[in-house]
Structures are given as structure tokens and as C-alpha cells.
Inverse folding.
């Protein structure tokens, strides 16, 4: 939520903190807050009046505007479609700073456009740093003095981005809400926005059909106003809207928006003369009904759509968006102002069903307090009278059914006991009073009555939180934990860790895959188990819908993905394993109809992929757990002619172990001692682009060392050489020594082409000869 | 780092060995370890600085610094047995020695957590990954119309009754109720539960639909916010091998109240760096005092007992511990990643 610093200052006249300090106070006291942006229109930008608009002699889409700047006349080249004689517009002369489309600022220069000089420009709101509208020049209201600086009307401001939490969005989604919180945190007073306090006449011709205690519509105030003049809003009101990134539309819409940003209550004004009739209701839509919203979309309504009806005809999507047929425009003279309260989940569903979100619906879903409706109605009426000249004819209303304020019992020692901090009774009382609670401390157990809009305060724990929040969480000093009694680790987990150690020591590397089985994995030719897979209804990707019934396919896919590494000549990395849960239809405990089991799968590849190696793995695990090797698991071979076998081009053996079953039959106790290595490894990034391997065989004299050759190779290859491996070493019959190196070429930012590799490989060979006198073996 | 010579390195080594000789007890030994071998210690800093050296000296210095580390490690381990201290594996000794494989970074991080948490009296528990909405939401004070339920990107699994649908657990918190109510645990108790969790999020460098969380739960008659602060400062100081302090900011979670967002003093700098975005603080995750309604779901009397709970991302911890910059690496299973741990 955007919060204007100027607006806060209006509500908190005694505020002395800077915007940065406010952000810090809010972050540590309630909501994470940072400075989002600033509004700072260049002082050189002034108000000018368009005297004449003529076509550009050399360009169809450009026009020449002759303007009165207050200090004289200028002719400006302008491409905007909306300029007309008589308008007041912003004018920035050369030297003024305006904003670019990508949000950066630049300084204007006098330019010549298609042969016509243009000493400055007329500005769109976006060019002035106001919102992101760039559809035309910003047309100002008629009463702004020509020649006056625009920043007198739209003063410099700092805009904060406040991240509301769901528990406080109902009362804090507005400038007043944040001002009240700052008041509690800083001890400064809030000047409450002024509303009317009149009693309105009834509207005998009009009828409101919303029943008392309605589930969806918890309050409804409908006010008929006449004598409205629709036009531009005064500059103070426009400045307020710009500060939160909203574009002024007309004085009626602007007032309703202002009240929403100010108090948090969305309101809506209908053109009263466009309503089909005088019977107003708020109800669920019937099948077959439609409504066209202000954005021009026509919605087919369902029983999840809440609509406002006039003579039973839907005229607005309640809480989401007004209807197009009753929109207020320049011709409107009578308004029907709706200030209601809608049930959050109803608006949430309707907004979801129609794929439509608005500033209003975003507030309703946070559960706007029902008591706000009357307040917001009075405030909107007062502003409409002031800004549009409207007079109230009368009102129809169904106020919220109010239960009297409920008090909460509080043990005044409780905050101290929860925090582990001395919190005095005075502090408890003071912090609650600052949050507008009534405090009755005449008995041992206090009675606290929260203000009506704090619907989140329902129990003692809520009060404890708000007391401690104001006392400050960081006044609580940590207490070091006791080391007297050690905790334990379940025996099945210990067995897992014992086997992890065993496998690691046996050269296995641990993989961790997702719990979904990728349907694109090539068939391994190994018969799948007979179990019934469970299916994710809303998978991360279509191919990830099945929960894995076995780790085997995913781990084999890991082998495929690492083929290049695992098939390197002379590699010792020939074994992988993975522990994890597998799922199927069945029953073994927590959730009915679900079988969730711990599985262990080992994979042996290359020269290690032999039956005897597989049997040795089973035997070692069996020995560690006191189980006969043949009871441990099953050993299988991936057929070389299977889909996966063909792709892998490596011998592969798998070992599949039902680890839950194995633990159940284990004898003896697992001998696992936890270990903790404090940050001894620092990860080194590697390229995600594939490496290309080239071998080189060198004949050398015995004075040249392996290190010298490696050094020459890496120096010449620079960053493109990822690795140099010695894979071969032997003496020739003529007594000379030969070495075979495999060089891995790789770039951090691209896949190397064959040409690039050939070029660098040649350079390396030449440099080796130059540096060390070594030659390629024939 | 200023450019060191091999001679200066030799001097550092002899200083370190000399000061190790003067160590008189396990506490002194730990101080020595932090000074020389800890995350911000002399030797790791040297090693990290090697890559910035001019190419001409890089190789020589790298070899020398690695040798120094091995020697100091050996000396430390010997001293540790002498004082009967818990041996902390100080440094990876490289991958020269024969064919030893690698455990996954997540496993290594969970093992560190196991060591630290059991050391301060927490007992490990596990729960199912495939849960029902009653355990994943209802028991945690997240009713059907609760915004948290709508905002959470939950994976639903077919089958199961409509009023209690099957889900892949969105947090490890569901273990709380299972471990307490179903096993009829009564306070005081301290449990921790590391494990896999799921959210249907778009995968990028910072998000994955599959990740791991650590759940802590401590309940008793007088378990306080002060205790919570002490536990997380201990956990993270030991995990990162350097002293960290915690700072709490107000936040909201349905299952705790008060709820906090916890920050730690940056483990990489004293006055602002890239990781902490110049603030000196690293955000570590959410926690709070267990909500009374959640205690009731565990059959615990909230009038009598109170406690704290937290759920932190294990990938986040591993990323900080090892300097990993992309969460996708954990599940990509690239050998070039896996073999680094
Ligand atoms: Zn830092």
C-alpha cells in the first residue's frame, strides 16, 4: 500500500520524523515499510494556457501549440492527441527535468522537431513523475493561475510502500489507519477527517431491500444527492490522488477514491437518473443475468456474484466494480451514493469468479469493519458537498447490527510472563490506552474494551501482542538454552543416517529429486511396480502430475542428466543414491487411502555397474543393519536397448530398497553420531552451459613437469578452460615420456561453438610448444 | 585482502600454532577455532581471497594456503581430543583421498541442525509429506475462509473427502499436532522437525515448488520470547560458526501470536554488504508464540502452558552457510554441484 508522507503530516500535524525515520518506526513497530518513490516536479515547470493549436507544417501527427506561459508566448511542438485551445497545461522549458518512460529523469533541451523549434514541452502526468498514465497531456482545472509553478499545486512528497499483514489490513489499509498506528507508536495526536453530522431525511419514494443481518451485505447507506456539477477536481484533491498513484477522473469519482485511501472504506456513486428504478437491493445474482462493468467487460453472473440491483436489475458488481450503464459523467446532476459493507469471502469469490480486482475489492477481502460504513458515508457526503456543490435530498439505510463493545479480560502480569521481560502495569495500561482501548484496572483482572475498528482484538493473547509490540520486541534479552538434557533422534532416522555414511564412504554421491515423477523420463525397460499412483490435481507442470511411486526413474534421469560427468575417462564417480518418500494408493498410517513409504535407491554406472558390485552394496547395508543381504532389496540392470539405456550409453545397475521394511527387520541399534561442520565449504559456481572436451597427447622431455604443462594450458585458455585432467601417462619405446590431457572448455555465459573450441585448442598446443618445447604425439 | 606472500603465510601459521599451544581448555579451543578457522576466521578469508590474486601467484598461494589449512586442522583435531571437546570438522580436506562420495548440501545442513538442536534438548520428530487439510490448515487456525488458505499455493492430491482434502504439506507445522496430540506428549517438551514441504510456486533463483523447512516447537509453563531469542541465536551462531544476534520485527502468522519476523546480524560483514543489502541484517524467517487455539488442537491447556514455534527454510540456511546463490541447484542434481559438499 502506498502512503503519502504529506498526507500523514496532515493527519498528524505534530509529526517530526523524516520519511526514512517513519519507515523504520513502522518496520520495527508493525509493518515492513520502505520508501517507494518521491514526487518532485521541477520548479521550472509552470502552468500555461493554450492559445492556439495549428498543424505542424512537416508532420501529420504533430501539432504546434501557441501557449501563454504567464511571461510571454511560446510555440511548442506537441504530439499528444488531447490538446485544445483554452486548456491549462503543464509546461516545462529547457533546463527542466522530466521523467523518461523507463522511470529515469532527464533534463530538457531546446530542440528542433521536423524543422520547427520547440523551446520546451507540454507534459503528460508520467513525464512529471505522477503515476504511469501517458495517454495525453495533463489537463489542469480552469482555476489554476497561469504562470504559477506546478509544484505549488502538487507539492514535493515522499511515498512509502507499507506491507500490510492480513491481521491488520482491515483497519490499516488507509492513511488514517497508518496515522493511528504512528500515533500509538510515537505518541502524537491524530486529527480525524471531518464528516457531516446531520440527520438525513428519509426517501419515501425509494426502497432498500437489504434485510437486517444479511450475510453478504452487512451494512448499506444509500444517499440521494442533487445539484452536482461534475468536472475536474481541485488541485489539492488531485495531488492527494497522484501521491498514491491514482489518476484523477472527475470530482465525484475522485472524492470516493480519496475517502477510500483516507479511511479504508470503498464507496460508489451512481448517476441516480440512470438507475432503472428506486428499489435498491444487494443480492446474489441469478443464472442468466449479466452486468457490464466500468471497464467495458460484460460478465455472465453466477450465484457467487454479489450484485447491486435497481428494480431487480443488476447495476454493479458489489464490492468489485460499478456498472457502465449508471456511470457518473459530465451530464450527471443527481447522485445515488452507496456506502456499504460487504462480507470479505463473498467479495473474494466474486472477484475470483469474474477475474476482476479493484482497489475496492482488495479492501473488502480484508474484512473492513462494519462501523466504518456510517463514518465513510458522512465523510464522502461532506466532501461531495464541498467539491461538487451537492445537496443531500435524503438517505435510505440498513446500518450494521451492532453488538455492544465486548470487553476482554487481561491478567496485567501476562505480557511480562510471555515475554520473559519486566513489563510494569503502567506500561501495560499506557500501551493499551495509546491504542485507543478503554482500560478498567479496578480489579485484579483488568477489563479491556478495544475500539470498534480493531476487530482483530478478541482475546488476551491479542492484547499481549499489542502491549509487547509497543514496549518493543527488541527490549527482550535472549536467555541461553539449557544444555543439561540432550534431545534424541528417532531410530529410523538414525538408520537412514548410518546408511548415508556407509554409502558416502563407498563412493556414492547423494542426489535429492522432487517428489513428482516426470512423465517425460525415457523408459528404463525395468518393469514398474504394480501400485496405483496418486495424482496432483494442480501440478507445477503437466508432466509433473504423478507423485512418484519409486525413486528409481527419477534417479536414473539424474544419471542421464550427468552423463558427461559420469562417463569421463577414469572418473571415480560411478555411484549415486537417494533417500525419499514414495506414494501410492493404500494405507499405512497418517492419511486415509495414502501409502507413504521411505525408499532408498542406489545406482551404479560404468565399470561399477556389475552384479557383484550391486550384491556387495546389498551385503554391506545388510551387515550394518543385521539383515541378510538377500532380504535388503532388489538388484536390477537397465537393458542397454531400452529408451533410457540407449540415451545413457552406459552400463547401469540399480538397487531398490524399501527402507521402512528394512528398518522394521533391522537388528541391533543404529550407531549414528551427529556431526556438524561449521561452514567449511564455500560453493563455487559453475557454468550452466555444457563443457566441450578435447584430448591432447604430448611427447615431452623428462625435465618438463605435469604442473608446468597444466599451468601453460590454463594460462593460455584463460576463463574458457574449466578443467584439465591427466588421463594417460606412459613411456614410449624410444624412452620419451607421453602424457594425455583432457581439457574441458566451457564459458560462463554461452555454449561454445566448435570453431571457438578449435581455435583456443590450437593456441594452447602452440603455446605448449613455445613454453616447454612439447609436441603433439604423432 | 591484501596480497600476502608465502612467507607471510608461514608466519600466520606459526602464530596460529603458537597460540594453539597456549589454549588451556575447550572454551579457549573454540575461541581459537573461531579466530582462525571460523567463517570470518583468518584462514577461510585467505582462501576466499585467493581467486582475486594475480594469476602469477595464485597457484602457489593456493597450494600454500591449503597446506596451512590442513596442518592447522590436524593440530586442532589433536587438541580437541586432548580437551575432550566436540570435534568440529574444521575443513574439507579436499577430494584426494580415494573414492569417497558426497552427501547432499541439504543433508549436511540438516545434520548440523540435528547436532545443534539435540545439544540444547530438542528431540527430532517427522511427519507425513502428504497431509490432509485438517492438519495442514484447520489445526493451525487457518479456516476455510482464511486469507492465508487462499494465498497459499497448495498442491491438492486427488481422492480424499471434500471436507478434508489431501494436500502436499505447505509447511512442517502440520507435524506439531501429529507429534504432540497423536503421541499424547504433555509439556514441557521441545521438538524439532526438518523436512520437505511444497508450494505451487513458479520456479526461479529464489523460489521452488519443493523445498525444506525446519520446525521448532517448545512448550512449557514458562517458555518465553526471551527463550526463543536464545534458541535462535544459539542455532544460527553454531550453524554458521560465528556469533550472531537476533532482532525481531512484528509480523503475522495465523498459528502464532505474537508473531515475529526474525533477522540475524549479517554473517558476512560488520557494516553492510551485498548479501544483507547494506543493512547489516539478514532476514531468516517467521516465528512466534504458539496461538492458544493451536495449543488447544494439541490437547494442551493454553491457560497453563505457552511456548514458541518457528518454521525456517533449510535451503535459505544452506545458501547462507555455503554461499549458494540459486535455490534451483539443490534439486538440479548436477554432479558439479553435488560433489562440492
Ligand atoms: Zn552484510
Amino acid at each position: 500500500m502506498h502512503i503519502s508522507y504529506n498526507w500523514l503530516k496532515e493527519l498528524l500535524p505534530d509529526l517530526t520524523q523524516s520519511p526514512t525515520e517513519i519507515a523504520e518506526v513502522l518496520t520495527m513497530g508493525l509493518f515492513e515499510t520502505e520508501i517507494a518513490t518521491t514526487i518532485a516536479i521541477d520548479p521550472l515547470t509552470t502552468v500555461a494556457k493554450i492559445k492556439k493549436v495549428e498543424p505542424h507544417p512537416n508532420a501529420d501527427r504533430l501539432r504546434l501549440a501557441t501557449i501563454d506561459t504567464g511571461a510571454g508566448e511560446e510555440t511548442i511542438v506537441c504530439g499528444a492527441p488531447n490538446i485544445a485551445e483554452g486548456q491549462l497545461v503543464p509546461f516545462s522549458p529547457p533546463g527542466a527535468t522530466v521523467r523518461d518512460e523507463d522511470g529515469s529523469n532527464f533534463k530538457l533541451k531546446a530542440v528542433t522537431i521536423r524543422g520547427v523549434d520547440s523551446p520546451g514541452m507540454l507534459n503528460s502526468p508520467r513525464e512529471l513523475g505522477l503515476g504511469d498514465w501517458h495517454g495525453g497531456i495533463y489537463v489542469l482545472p480552469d482555476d489554476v493561475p497561469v504562470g504559477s509553478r506546478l509544484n505549488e499545486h502538487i507539492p514535493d512528497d515522499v511515498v512509502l510502500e507499507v506491507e500490510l499483514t492480513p491481521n491488520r489490513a482491515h483497519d490499516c489499509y488507509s492513511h488514517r489507519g497508518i496515522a493511528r498506528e504512528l500515533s500509538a507508536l510515537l505518541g502524537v495526536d491524530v486529527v480525524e477527517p471531518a464528516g457531516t453530522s446531520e440527520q438525513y431525511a428519509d426517501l419515501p419514494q425509494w426502497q432498500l431491500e437489504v434485510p437486517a443481518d444479511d450475510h453478504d451485505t452487512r451494512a448499506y447507506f444509500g444517499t440521494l444527492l442533487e445539484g452536482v456539477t461534475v468536472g475536474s477536481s481541485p488541485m489539492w484533491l488531485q495531488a492527494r490522488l497522484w501521491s498514491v498513484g491514482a489518476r484523477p477522473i472527475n470530482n465525484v469519482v475522485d472524492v470516493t477514491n480519496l475517502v477510500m485511501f483516507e479511511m479504508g472504506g470503498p464507496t460508489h456513486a451512481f448517476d441516480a437518473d440512470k438507475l432503472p428504478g428506486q428499489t435498491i437491493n444487494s443480492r446474489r445474482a441469478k443464472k442468466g443475468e449479466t452486468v457490464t462493468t466500468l471497464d467495458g467487460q460484460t460478465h455472465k453472473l453466477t450465484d457467487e456474484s454479489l450484485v447491486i440491483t435497481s428494480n431487480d436489475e443488476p447495476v454493479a458488481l458489489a464490492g468489485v466494480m460499478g456498472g457502465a450503464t449508471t456511470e457518473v459523467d459530465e451530464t450527471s446532476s443527481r447522485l445515488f451514493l452507496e456506502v456499504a459493507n460487504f462480507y470479505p469471502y463473498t467479495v473474494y469469490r466474486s472477484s475470483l469468479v469474474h477475474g476482476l480486482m479493484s482497489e475496492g475489492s482488495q479492501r473488502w477481502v480484508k474484512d473492513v469493519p462494519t462501523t466504518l460504513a456510517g463514518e465513510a458515508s458522512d465523510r464522502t457526503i461532506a466532501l461531495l458537498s464541498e467539491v461538487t456543490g451537492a445537496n443531500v435530498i435524503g438517505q435510505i439505510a440498513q446500518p450494521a447490527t451492532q453488538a455492544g463493545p465486548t470487553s476482554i479480560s487481561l491478567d496485567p502480569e501476562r505480557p511480562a510472563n510471555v515475554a520473559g521481560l519486566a513489563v510494569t502495569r503502567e506500561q501495560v495500561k499506557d500501551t493499551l490506552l495509546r491504542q485507543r482501548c478503554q482500560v478498567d484496572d479496578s480489579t485484579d483482572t483488568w477489563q479491556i474494551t478495544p475500539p470498534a475498528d480493531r476487530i482483530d482484538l478478541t482475546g488476551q493473547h491479542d492484547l499481549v501482542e499489542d502491549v509487547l509490540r509497543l514496549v518493543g520486541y527488541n527490549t527482550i534479552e535472549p536467555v541461553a538454552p539449557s544444555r543439561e538434557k540432550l534431545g534424541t533422534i528417532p531410530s529410523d532416522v538414525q538408520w537412514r543416517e548410518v546408511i548415508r555414511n556407509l554409502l558416502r564412504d563407498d563412493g556414492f554421491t547423494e542426489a535429492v529429486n522432487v517428489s513428482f515423477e516426470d512423465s517425460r523420463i525415457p523408459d528404463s525397460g525395468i518393469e514398474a511396480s504394480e501400485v496405483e499412483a496418486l495424482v496432483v490435481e494442480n501440478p507445477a507442470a503437466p508432466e509433473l502430475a504423478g507423485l512418484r511411486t519409486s525413486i528409481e526413474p527419477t534417479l536414473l534421469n539424474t544419471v542421464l542428466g550427468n552423463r558427461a560427468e559420469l562417463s569421463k575417462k577414469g572418473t571415480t564417480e560411478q555411484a549415486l543414491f537417494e533417500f525419499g518418500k514414495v506414494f501410492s494408493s493404500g494405507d499405512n498410517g497418517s492419511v486415509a487411502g495414502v501409502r507413504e513409504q521411505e525408499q532408498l535407491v542406489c545406482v551404479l554406472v560404468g565399470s561399477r555397474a556389475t552384479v557383484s558390485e550391486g550384491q556387495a552394496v546389498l551385503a554391506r547395508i545388510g551387515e550394518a543393519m543385521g539383515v541378510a543381504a538377500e532380504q535388503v532389496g532388489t538388484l536390477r540392470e537397465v537393458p542397454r536397448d531400452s529408451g533410457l539405456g540407449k540415451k545413457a550409453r552406459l552400463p547401469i545397475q540399480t538397487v531398490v530398497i524399501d527402507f521402512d521394511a528394512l528398518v522394521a527387520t533391522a537388528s541391533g541399534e543404529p550407531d549414528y553420531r551427529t556431526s556438524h561442520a561449521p561452514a567449511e565449504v564455500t560453493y563455487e559456481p559453475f557454468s550452466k552451459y555444457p563443457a566441450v572436451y578435447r584430448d591432447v597427447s604430448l611427447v615431452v622431455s623428462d625435465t618438463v613437469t605435469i604442473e608446468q604443462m597444466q599451468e601453460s594450458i590454463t594460462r593460455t585458455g584463460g576463463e574458457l578452460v574449466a578443467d584439465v585432467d591427466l588421463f594417460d601417462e606412459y613411456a614410449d619405446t624410444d624412452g620419451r615420456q607421453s602424457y594425455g590431457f583432457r581439457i574441458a572448455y566451457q564459458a560462463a555465459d554461452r555454449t561454445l561453438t566448435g570453431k571457438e573450441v578449435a581455435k583456443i585448442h590450437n593456441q594452447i598446443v602452440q603455446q605448449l610448444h613455445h613454453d616447454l618445447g612439447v609436441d603433439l604425439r604423432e | 585482502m591484501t596480497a600476502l606472500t608465502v612467507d607471510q603465510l608461514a608466519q600466520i601459521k606459526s602464530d596460529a600454532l603458537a597460540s594453539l599451544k597456549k589454549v588451556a581448555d575447550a572454551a579457549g579451543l573454540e575461541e581459537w577455532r573461531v579466530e582462525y578457522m571460523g567463517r570470518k576466521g583468518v584462514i577461510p578469508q585467505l582462501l576466499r581471497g585467493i581467486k582475486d590474486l594475480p594469476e602469477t601467484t595464485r597457484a602457489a598461494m593456493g597450494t600454500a594456503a591449503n597446506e596451512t589449512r590442513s596442518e592447522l586442522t590436524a593440530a586442532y583435531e589433536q587438541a580437541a581430543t586432548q580437551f575432550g571437546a566436540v570435534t568440529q570438522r574444521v575443513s574439507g580436506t579436499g577430494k584426494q583421498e580415494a573414492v569417497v562420495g558426497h552427501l547432499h548440501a541439504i543433508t549436511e545442513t540438516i545434520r548440523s541442525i540435528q547436532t545443534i538442536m539435540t545439544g540444547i534438548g530438542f528431540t527430532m520428530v517427522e511427519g507425513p509429506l502428504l497431509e490432509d487439510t485438517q492438519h495442514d490448515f484447520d489445526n493451525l487456525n487457518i479456516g476455510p475462509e482464511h486469507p492465508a488458505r487462499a494465498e497459499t499455493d497448495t498442491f491438492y492430491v486427488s481422492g480424499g473427502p471434500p471436507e478434508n482434502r489431501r494436500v502436499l504439506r505447505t509447511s512442517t507445522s502440520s507435524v506439531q499436532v501429529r507429534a504432540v496430540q497423536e503421541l499424547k506428549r504433555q509439556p514441557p517438551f521441545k521438538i524439532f522437525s526438518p523436512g520437505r514441504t511444497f508450494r505451487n510456486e513458479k520456479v526461479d533463483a529464489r523460489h521452488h515448488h519443493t523445498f525444506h523447512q525446519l520446525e521448532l516447537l517448545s512448550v512449557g509453563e514458562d517458555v518465553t520470547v526471551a527463550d526463543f531469542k536464545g534458541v535462535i541465536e544459539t542455532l544460527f551462531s553454531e550453524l554458521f560458526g560465528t556469533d550472531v544476534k537476533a532482532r525481531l520485527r512484528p509480523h503475522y502468522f495465523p498459528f502464532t501470536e505474537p508473531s515475529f519476523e526474525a533477522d540475524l546480524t549479517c554473517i558476512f560483514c560488520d557494516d553492510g554488504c551485498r548479501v544483507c543489502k547494506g543493512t547489516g541484517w539478514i532476514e531468516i524467517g517467521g516465528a512466534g508464540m504458539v496461538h492458544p487455539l493451536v495449543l488447544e488442537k494439541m490437547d494442551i491447556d493454553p491457560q497453563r502452558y505457552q511456548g514458541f514455534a518457528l518454521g525456517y527454510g533449510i535451503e535459505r540456511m544452506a545458501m547462507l552457510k555455503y554461499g549458494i546463490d540459486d535455490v534451483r541447484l539443490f534439486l538440479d542434481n548436477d554432479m558439479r554441484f553435488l560433489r562440492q559438499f
